[in-house]
Protein backbone atom coordinates (compact mmCIF):
# COMPACT_ATOMS: atom_id res chain seq x y z
CA UNK A 1 0.00 0.00 0.00
CA UNK A 2 2.39 2.64 -1.22
CA UNK A 3 1.83 6.34 -0.67
CA UNK A 4 -0.93 5.79 1.87
CA UNK A 5 -0.97 7.77 5.08
CA UNK A 6 -2.33 6.10 8.18
CA UNK A 7 -3.37 7.45 11.57
CA UNK A 8 -2.98 4.96 14.41
CA UNK A 9 -4.77 4.88 17.75
CA UNK A 10 -3.42 2.65 20.52
CA UNK A 11 -5.91 1.30 23.05
CA UNK A 12 -4.31 0.14 26.29
CA UNK A 13 -5.73 -1.96 29.14
CA UNK A 14 -9.33 -1.01 30.02
CA UNK A 15 -11.25 1.20 27.62
CA UNK A 16 -14.83 1.91 26.77
CA UNK A 17 -15.61 4.62 24.30
CA UNK A 18 -17.79 5.47 21.34
CA UNK A 19 -16.61 8.38 19.25
CA UNK A 20 -17.23 9.79 15.83
CA UNK A 21 -14.18 10.26 13.64
CA UNK A 22 -13.89 12.48 10.60
CA UNK A 23 -11.22 14.16 8.53
CA UNK A 24 -12.71 17.57 9.22
CA UNK A 25 -14.59 18.02 5.96
CA UNK A 26 -18.17 17.38 4.93
CA UNK A 27 -17.75 14.61 2.38
CA UNK A 28 -19.01 11.29 3.74
CA UNK A 29 -18.41 7.74 2.63
CA UNK A 30 -19.07 4.29 4.02
CA UNK A 31 -17.88 3.53 7.56
CA UNK A 32 -15.48 0.65 6.85
CA UNK A 33 -13.55 -1.00 4.04
CA UNK A 34 -15.72 -2.92 1.59
CA UNK A 35 -13.48 -5.86 0.86
CA UNK A 36 -16.27 -7.85 -0.77
CA UNK A 37 -17.30 -5.76 -3.76
CA UNK A 38 -15.22 -6.44 -6.88
CA UNK A 39 -16.17 -4.73 -10.11
CA UNK A 40 -17.40 -7.93 -11.73
CA UNK A 41 -19.88 -8.82 -8.99
CA UNK A 42 -23.44 -9.35 -10.20
CA UNK A 43 -26.76 -9.98 -8.48
CA UNK A 44 -29.76 -11.10 -10.51
CA UNK A 45 -31.91 -13.42 -8.43
CA UNK A 46 -33.68 -13.40 -5.08
CA UNK A 47 -32.05 -15.12 -2.14
CA UNK A 48 -34.62 -17.33 -0.37
CA UNK A 49 -33.01 -17.15 3.05
CA UNK A 50 -30.86 -14.97 5.24
CA UNK A 51 -28.16 -16.32 7.55
CA UNK A 52 -29.96 -14.46 10.32
CA UNK A 53 -32.95 -12.20 10.74
CA UNK A 54 -32.64 -10.82 14.23
CA UNK A 55 -29.79 -8.55 15.31
CA UNK A 56 -29.65 -9.80 18.90
CA UNK A 57 -30.66 -13.46 19.06
CA UNK A 58 -29.43 -15.05 15.83
CA UNK A 59 -29.87 -18.63 16.95
CA UNK A 60 -33.63 -18.20 17.23
CA UNK A 61 -34.28 -16.46 13.95
CA UNK A 62 -32.18 -17.76 11.11
CA UNK A 63 -33.67 -20.57 9.06
CA UNK A 64 -32.09 -23.86 8.12
CA UNK A 65 -30.13 -23.57 4.85
CA UNK A 66 -31.28 -25.54 1.82
CA UNK A 67 -28.04 -27.56 1.74
CA UNK A 68 -25.70 -28.77 4.49
CA UNK A 69 -23.70 -25.69 5.37
CA UNK A 70 -20.40 -27.20 6.44
CA UNK A 71 -17.33 -25.91 4.62
CA UNK A 72 -15.10 -28.88 3.87
CA UNK A 73 -11.92 -29.57 1.96
CA UNK A 74 -11.86 -31.74 -1.17
CA UNK A 75 -9.04 -33.65 -2.80
CA UNK A 76 -6.67 -31.50 -4.82
CA UNK A 77 -7.29 -33.93 -7.70
CA UNK A 78 -10.74 -32.37 -8.01
CA UNK A 79 -10.81 -28.97 -9.69
CA UNK A 80 -13.86 -27.09 -8.39
CA UNK A 81 -15.09 -24.29 -10.62
CA UNK A 82 -14.54 -21.53 -8.09
CA UNK A 83 -13.30 -18.10 -9.01
CA UNK A 84 -11.01 -17.55 -6.00
CA UNK A 85 -11.48 -14.24 -4.22
CA UNK A 86 -14.21 -13.06 -6.57
CA UNK A 87 -16.83 -11.93 -4.07
CA UNK A 88 -20.52 -11.49 -4.76
CA UNK A 89 -23.52 -10.14 -2.89
CA UNK A 90 -26.97 -11.73 -2.83
CA UNK A 91 -30.17 -9.66 -3.12
CA UNK A 92 -30.50 -10.00 0.67
CA UNK A 93 -26.99 -8.57 1.20
CA UNK A 94 -25.33 -11.89 2.00
CA UNK A 95 -21.69 -12.07 0.94
CA UNK A 96 -20.52 -15.09 -1.04
CA UNK A 97 -18.07 -16.26 -3.68
CA UNK A 98 -18.63 -16.92 -7.38
CA UNK A 99 -18.68 -20.61 -8.33
CA UNK A 100 -20.51 -22.96 -10.65
CA UNK A 101 -23.55 -24.58 -9.12
CA UNK A 102 -21.98 -28.05 -8.91
CA UNK A 103 -18.95 -26.81 -6.99
CA UNK A 104 -21.15 -24.72 -4.71
CA UNK A 105 -23.24 -27.75 -3.82
CA UNK A 106 -20.16 -29.96 -3.38
CA UNK A 107 -18.80 -27.63 -0.73
CA UNK A 108 -22.15 -27.41 1.06
CA UNK A 109 -22.98 -23.93 -0.19
CA UNK A 110 -26.25 -22.36 -1.26
CA UNK A 111 -26.80 -20.55 -4.55
CA UNK A 112 -28.26 -17.06 -4.13
CA UNK A 113 -27.93 -14.77 -7.11
CA UNK A 114 -25.68 -14.99 -10.14
CA UNK A 115 -22.18 -14.02 -11.24
CA UNK A 116 -20.63 -13.51 -14.66
CA UNK A 117 -19.93 -16.56 -16.80
CA UNK A 118 -23.03 -18.46 -15.74
CA UNK A 119 -21.79 -18.99 -12.21
CA UNK A 120 -23.84 -18.59 -9.05
CA UNK A 121 -23.21 -16.50 -5.97
CA UNK A 122 -22.42 -19.26 -3.49
CA UNK A 123 -23.25 -18.52 0.16
CA UNK A 124 -21.29 -20.66 2.62
CA UNK A 125 -22.09 -21.13 6.30
CA UNK A 126 -20.72 -23.20 9.16
CA UNK A 127 -22.76 -24.02 12.26
CA UNK A 128 -22.91 -26.73 14.92
CA UNK A 129 -19.25 -26.17 15.81
CA UNK A 130 -19.47 -27.16 19.49
CA UNK A 131 -18.74 -30.89 19.08
CA UNK A 132 -15.04 -31.62 19.63
CA UNK A 133 -15.44 -35.02 17.97
CA UNK A 134 -16.57 -33.34 14.74
CA UNK A 135 -14.22 -30.38 14.12
CA UNK A 136 -15.17 -27.92 11.41
CA UNK A 137 -12.65 -26.51 8.94
CA UNK A 138 -13.17 -23.40 6.81
CA UNK A 139 -11.24 -23.18 3.55
CA UNK A 140 -13.53 -20.94 1.48
CA UNK A 141 -13.43 -17.15 1.37
CA UNK A 142 -16.50 -15.32 2.71
CA UNK A 143 -17.83 -18.04 5.01
CA UNK A 144 -20.32 -17.26 7.79
CA UNK A 145 -19.69 -18.83 11.20
CA UNK A 146 -23.03 -19.17 13.01
CA UNK A 147 -23.87 -20.09 16.57
CA UNK A 148 -25.80 -23.36 17.03
CA UNK A 149 -29.40 -23.22 15.86
CA UNK A 150 -30.69 -24.63 19.15
CA UNK A 151 -29.08 -21.83 21.13
CA UNK A 152 -26.66 -21.90 24.05
CA UNK A 153 -28.26 -21.60 27.47
CA UNK A 154 -26.96 -19.65 30.45
CA UNK A 155 -25.91 -22.84 32.27
CA UNK A 156 -23.80 -24.25 29.43
CA UNK A 157 -20.12 -24.96 30.10
CA UNK A 158 -18.52 -25.74 26.79
CA UNK A 159 -16.86 -24.17 23.78
CA UNK A 160 -17.45 -23.77 20.06
CA UNK A 161 -14.59 -23.41 17.60
CA UNK A 162 -13.66 -23.44 13.93
CA UNK A 163 -10.34 -23.73 12.15
CA UNK A 164 -9.61 -21.43 9.21
CA UNK A 165 -7.11 -23.28 7.02
CA UNK A 166 -5.00 -21.04 4.77
CA UNK A 167 -3.01 -22.79 2.06
CA UNK A 168 -2.49 -21.47 -1.47
CA UNK A 169 -2.34 -25.07 -2.75
CA UNK A 170 -6.00 -25.64 -1.90
CA UNK A 171 -7.98 -25.39 -5.15
CA UNK A 172 -10.65 -23.21 -3.54
CA UNK A 173 -7.98 -20.64 -2.62
CA UNK A 174 -5.32 -20.86 -5.31
CA UNK A 175 -3.27 -17.83 -4.25
CA UNK A 176 -1.43 -16.52 -1.22
CA UNK A 177 -3.47 -15.06 1.66
CA UNK A 178 -1.84 -12.59 4.09
CA UNK A 179 -4.80 -11.45 6.21
CA UNK A 180 -8.19 -12.62 7.39
CA UNK A 181 -10.91 -10.15 8.31
CA UNK A 182 -13.59 -11.06 10.86
CA UNK A 183 -16.83 -9.08 10.53
CA UNK A 184 -18.93 -9.44 13.68
CA UNK A 185 -22.31 -9.12 12.02
CA UNK A 186 -23.83 -10.28 15.26
CA UNK A 187 -22.06 -11.25 18.46
CA UNK A 188 -23.38 -11.53 22.01
CA UNK A 189 -21.88 -13.61 24.83
CA UNK A 190 -21.47 -13.08 28.58
CA UNK A 191 -20.38 -9.72 29.99
CA UNK A 192 -17.10 -9.14 31.87
CA UNK A 193 -16.93 -9.39 35.65
CA UNK A 194 -16.90 -6.27 37.89
CA UNK A 195 -13.13 -6.01 37.35
CA UNK A 196 -13.72 -5.76 33.57
CA UNK A 197 -12.12 -9.17 32.95
CA UNK A 198 -13.72 -11.66 30.54
CA UNK A 199 -13.71 -14.39 33.18
CA UNK A 200 -16.87 -16.30 32.22
CA UNK A 201 -17.39 -16.17 28.44
CA UNK A 202 -14.54 -15.44 26.03
CA UNK A 203 -13.73 -15.15 22.33
CA UNK A 204 -10.12 -15.95 21.44
CA UNK A 205 -8.03 -16.26 18.29
CA UNK A 206 -4.93 -18.44 18.01
CA UNK A 207 -2.49 -18.61 15.11
CA UNK A 208 -2.35 -14.96 14.01
CA UNK A 209 1.00 -13.16 13.94
CA UNK A 210 -0.46 -9.96 15.42
CA UNK A 211 -1.78 -9.69 18.98
CA UNK A 212 -5.53 -10.41 19.18
CA UNK A 213 -7.13 -9.40 22.50
CA UNK A 214 -9.60 -11.65 24.27
CA UNK A 215 -13.08 -10.11 24.12
CA UNK A 216 -16.56 -10.80 25.45
CA UNK A 217 -19.96 -9.10 25.67
CA UNK A 218 -21.76 -7.40 22.78
CA UNK A 219 -19.69 -6.74 19.66
CA UNK A 220 -22.14 -6.40 16.81
CA UNK A 221 -20.66 -4.31 13.99
CA UNK A 222 -17.05 -4.73 15.11
CA UNK A 223 -14.25 -6.18 13.01
CA UNK A 224 -10.72 -7.57 13.35
CA UNK A 225 -7.81 -8.07 10.96
CA UNK A 226 -5.73 -11.21 11.57
CA UNK A 227 -2.22 -11.21 10.08
CA UNK A 228 -0.63 -14.43 8.82
CA UNK A 229 2.50 -15.27 6.79
CA UNK A 230 1.88 -15.67 3.03
CA UNK A 231 -0.04 -18.92 2.74
CA UNK A 232 1.89 -19.86 -0.41
CA UNK A 233 5.06 -20.38 1.63
CA UNK A 234 3.75 -20.78 5.19
CA UNK A 235 0.32 -22.45 5.40
CA UNK A 236 -1.46 -21.38 8.58
CA UNK A 237 -4.35 -22.63 10.69
CA UNK A 238 -6.30 -20.01 12.62
CA UNK A 239 -8.33 -21.25 15.57
CA UNK A 240 -11.41 -19.19 16.53
CA UNK A 241 -12.97 -20.24 19.84
CA UNK A 242 -15.90 -19.09 21.95
CA UNK A 243 -15.74 -20.51 25.49
CA UNK A 244 -18.65 -20.42 27.95
CA UNK A 245 -18.72 -20.39 31.74
CA UNK A 246 -21.54 -21.77 33.87
CA UNK A 247 -22.23 -18.57 35.77
CA UNK A 248 -23.23 -16.37 32.87
CA UNK A 249 -26.81 -15.13 32.81
CA UNK A 250 -26.56 -14.28 29.12
CA UNK A 251 -27.96 -16.02 26.09
CA UNK A 252 -25.23 -16.43 23.53
CA UNK A 253 -25.26 -16.12 19.77
CA UNK A 254 -23.07 -14.94 16.91
CA UNK A 255 -22.77 -14.56 13.16
CA UNK A 256 -19.21 -13.83 12.02
CA UNK A 257 -18.24 -13.37 8.37
CA UNK A 258 -14.74 -14.73 7.72
CA UNK A 259 -13.07 -13.14 4.68
CA UNK A 260 -9.63 -13.99 3.30
CA UNK A 261 -7.50 -11.18 1.86
CA UNK A 262 -4.83 -12.07 -0.75
CA UNK A 263 -1.30 -10.74 -0.31
CA UNK A 264 -1.61 -8.60 -3.47
CA UNK A 265 -4.91 -6.99 -2.45
CA UNK A 266 -5.29 -3.23 -2.07
CA UNK A 267 -7.55 -3.97 0.91
CA UNK A 268 -4.78 -5.21 3.20
CA UNK A 269 -4.66 -3.37 6.51
CA UNK A 270 -1.29 -1.91 7.59
CA UNK A 271 0.81 -4.21 9.81
CA UNK A 272 -0.28 -4.45 13.45
CA UNK A 273 -3.62 -2.70 12.86
CA UNK A 274 -6.32 -4.78 14.51
CA UNK A 275 -8.96 -2.46 13.05
CA UNK A 276 -8.68 -0.41 9.86
CA UNK A 277 -11.01 2.31 8.57
CA UNK A 278 -10.81 3.91 5.13
CA UNK A 279 -13.89 6.11 5.45
CA UNK A 280 -13.56 9.87 5.80
CA UNK A 281 -16.35 9.89 8.40
CA UNK A 282 -17.77 7.22 10.65
CA UNK A 283 -18.01 5.86 14.19
CA UNK A 284 -15.34 4.00 16.13
CA UNK A 285 -16.29 1.90 19.15
CA UNK A 286 -14.26 -0.08 21.64
CA UNK A 287 -15.16 -3.74 22.04
CA UNK A 288 -18.32 -4.26 24.11
CA UNK A 289 -19.36 -0.58 23.95
CA UNK A 290 -23.13 -0.17 23.94
CA UNK A 291 -25.51 2.63 24.77
CA UNK A 292 -26.79 1.25 28.09
CA UNK A 293 -27.33 2.52 31.62
CA UNK A 294 -24.18 3.76 33.33
CA UNK A 295 -24.31 1.08 36.04
CA UNK A 296 -23.42 -1.66 33.56
CA UNK A 297 -19.80 -2.84 33.26
CA UNK A 298 -18.87 -2.37 29.60
CA UNK A 299 -15.11 -1.99 29.84
CA UNK A 300 -12.84 -4.88 28.90
CA UNK A 301 -9.52 -5.40 30.65
CA UNK A 302 -6.22 -6.24 28.97
CA UNK A 303 -6.96 -4.54 25.67
CA UNK A 304 -3.83 -3.40 23.83
CA UNK A 305 -4.28 -2.84 20.10
CA UNK A 306 -4.11 -0.27 17.33
CA UNK A 307 -6.92 1.29 15.28
CA UNK A 308 -5.75 2.71 11.97
CA UNK A 309 -7.32 5.26 9.62
CA UNK A 310 -6.39 5.71 5.98
CA UNK A 311 -6.35 9.32 4.85
CA UNK A 312 -7.40 10.53 1.42
CA UNK A 313 -4.61 11.89 -0.83
CA UNK A 314 -4.78 15.65 -1.16
CA UNK A 315 -6.95 16.11 1.94
CA UNK A 316 -5.72 17.85 5.08
CA UNK A 317 -4.23 15.19 7.35
CA UNK A 318 -6.26 16.08 10.42
CA UNK A 319 -8.38 13.58 12.33
CA UNK A 320 -11.26 15.05 14.36
CA UNK A 321 -12.88 12.88 17.03
CA UNK A 322 -16.02 13.93 18.87
CA UNK A 323 -18.28 12.05 21.32
CA UNK A 324 -21.34 10.47 19.76
CA UNK A 325 -24.86 10.99 21.06
CA UNK A 326 -26.04 8.58 23.77
CA UNK A 327 -29.58 8.11 25.05
CA UNK A 328 -29.50 5.66 27.98
CA UNK A 329 -29.52 7.10 31.50
CA UNK A 330 -25.98 7.51 32.77
CA UNK A 331 -24.43 6.23 29.54
CA UNK A 332 -21.08 7.69 28.45
CA UNK A 333 -19.94 8.12 24.87
CA UNK A 334 -16.32 8.11 26.06
CA UNK A 335 -15.43 6.37 29.31
CA UNK A 336 -11.87 5.35 30.13
CA UNK A 337 -11.19 4.89 33.83
CA UNK A 338 -7.83 5.93 35.24
CA UNK A 339 -5.87 5.86 38.48
CA UNK A 340 -4.26 9.02 39.82
CA UNK A 341 -0.47 9.02 40.35
CA UNK A 342 -0.96 10.35 43.91
CA UNK A 343 -3.94 8.72 45.65
CA UNK A 344 -6.12 11.13 47.58
CA UNK A 345 -9.25 10.94 49.67
CA UNK A 346 -11.33 11.64 46.58
CA UNK A 347 -9.45 9.24 44.28
CA UNK A 348 -12.68 7.44 43.50
CA UNK A 349 -14.24 10.65 42.26
CA UNK A 350 -11.16 11.30 40.13
CA UNK A 351 -11.99 8.50 37.72
CA UNK A 352 -15.25 10.27 36.96
CA UNK A 353 -13.57 13.50 35.88
CA UNK A 354 -14.27 14.96 32.49
CA UNK A 355 -11.71 14.13 29.82
CA UNK A 356 -11.09 17.86 29.31
CA UNK A 357 -9.89 18.16 32.94
CA UNK A 358 -7.23 15.47 32.65
CA UNK A 359 -3.79 15.80 31.12
CA UNK A 360 -1.65 13.02 29.69
CA UNK A 361 0.14 12.82 33.06
CA UNK A 362 -3.13 11.83 34.75
CA UNK A 363 -3.73 8.93 32.36
CA UNK A 364 -1.28 6.44 33.81
CA UNK A 365 -3.32 3.24 33.93
CA UNK A 366 -5.98 3.02 31.21
CA UNK A 367 -5.94 5.37 28.25
CA UNK A 368 -6.44 5.97 24.56
CA UNK A 369 -3.37 7.16 22.64
CA UNK A 370 -3.81 9.62 19.77
CA UNK A 371 -0.33 10.56 18.50
CA UNK A 372 0.20 14.33 18.22
CA UNK A 373 -3.34 14.95 19.46
CA UNK A 374 -4.72 17.92 21.32
CA UNK A 375 -7.95 18.49 23.21
CA UNK A 376 -9.94 21.51 22.02
CA UNK A 377 -12.29 21.11 25.00
CA UNK A 378 -9.74 22.08 27.65
CA UNK A 379 -10.30 25.05 29.97
CA UNK A 380 -9.21 28.41 28.58
CA UNK A 381 -5.93 28.40 30.52
CA UNK A 382 -4.70 25.35 28.62
CA UNK A 383 -6.68 25.69 25.41
CA UNK A 384 -5.46 23.31 22.70
CA UNK A 385 -2.72 21.91 24.93
CA UNK A 386 -0.98 18.96 23.30
CA UNK A 387 -2.12 15.51 24.39
CA UNK A 388 -1.23 11.99 23.41
CA UNK A 389 -3.14 10.10 26.13
CA UNK A 390 -6.86 10.43 26.79
CA UNK A 391 -8.87 9.11 29.72
CA UNK A 392 -11.83 10.15 31.86
CA UNK A 393 -15.42 10.64 30.74
CA UNK A 394 -17.45 12.78 28.40
Automatic annotation (TrEMBL):
<dbReference type="Pfam" id="PF26080">
    <property type="entry name" value="CUB_animal"/>
</dbReference>
<protein>
    <recommendedName>
        <fullName>CUB domain-containing protein</fullName>
    </recommendedName>
</protein>
<feature type="domain" description="CUB">
    <location>
        <begin position="270"/>
        <end position="393"/>
    </location>
</feature>
<feature type="region of interest" description="Disordered">
    <location>
        <begin position="27"/>
        <end position="47"/>
    </location>
</feature>
<feature type="compositionally biased region" description="Polar residues">
    <location>
        <begin position="27"/>
        <end position="39"/>
    </location>
</feature>
<dbReference type="InterPro" id="IPR058698">
    <property type="entry name" value="CUB_metazoa"/>
</dbReference>
<keyword id="KW-0732">Signal</keyword>
<feature type="signal peptide">
    <location>
        <begin position="1"/>
        <end position="21"/>
    </location>
</feature>
Amino acid sequence: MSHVNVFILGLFLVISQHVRASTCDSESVEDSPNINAPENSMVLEDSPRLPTNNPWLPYYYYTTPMAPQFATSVSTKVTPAFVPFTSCTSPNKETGICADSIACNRYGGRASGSCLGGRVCCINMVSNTCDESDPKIITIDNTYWLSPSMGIGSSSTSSCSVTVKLNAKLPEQGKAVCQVRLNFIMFSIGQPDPESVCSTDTFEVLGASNRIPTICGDNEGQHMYLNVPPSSTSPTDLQLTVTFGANSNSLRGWNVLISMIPCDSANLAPPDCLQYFIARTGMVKSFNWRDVAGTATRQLANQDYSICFRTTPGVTKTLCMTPCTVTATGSKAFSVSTAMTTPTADAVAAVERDVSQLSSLNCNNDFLIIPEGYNIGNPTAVLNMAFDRYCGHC
